[in-house]
Write a sequence for this structure.
């Protein structure tokens, strides 16, 4: 079994910062892409940022210059540093990872349980 466990959400004022963490655990052979999605009430889930196993990053236009995604391969952990937060960043943030488990040879897409980020104006 593979699990993604997130931490770091909370309530912050506009202009503030938060750091999200997501650790993958379980029967893991290799982790490929890791990233973060978010879903605001009444909206579709959208990509926020992602990082490949080689360190290449991709960001949504709405967070470029404010958010930074990084990963620690030794800890199987991905981070999202969020600065200059805005009320429109309020959403449930989900960790996502493409992982090949030890029990097979195909990569699968895994999701964390989600963590709430609320930015007050």
């Amino acid at each position: 079994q593979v699990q993604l466990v997130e931490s770091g959400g909370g309530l912050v004022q506009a202009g503030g910062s938060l750091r999200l963490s997501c650790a993958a655990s379980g029967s893991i052979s290799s982790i490929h892409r890791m990233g973060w999605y978010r879903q605001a009430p009444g909206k579709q889930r959208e990509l926020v940022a992602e990082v490949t196993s080689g360190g290449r990053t991709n960001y949504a236009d709405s967070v470029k210059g404010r958010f930074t995604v990084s990963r620690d391969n030794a800890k199987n952990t991905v981070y999202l540093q969020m600065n200059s937060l805005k009320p429109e960043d309020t959403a449930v943030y989900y960790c996502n990872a493409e992982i090949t488990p030890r029990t097979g040879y195909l990569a699968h897409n895994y999701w964390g349980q989600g963590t709430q980020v609320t930015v007050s104006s």
Observations:
- The longest strand covers residues 28-39.
- Residues 31 and 72 are 11 Å apart (CA to CA).
- The chain has a mean pLDDT of 96.
- DSSP finds no helices and eleven strands in the chain.
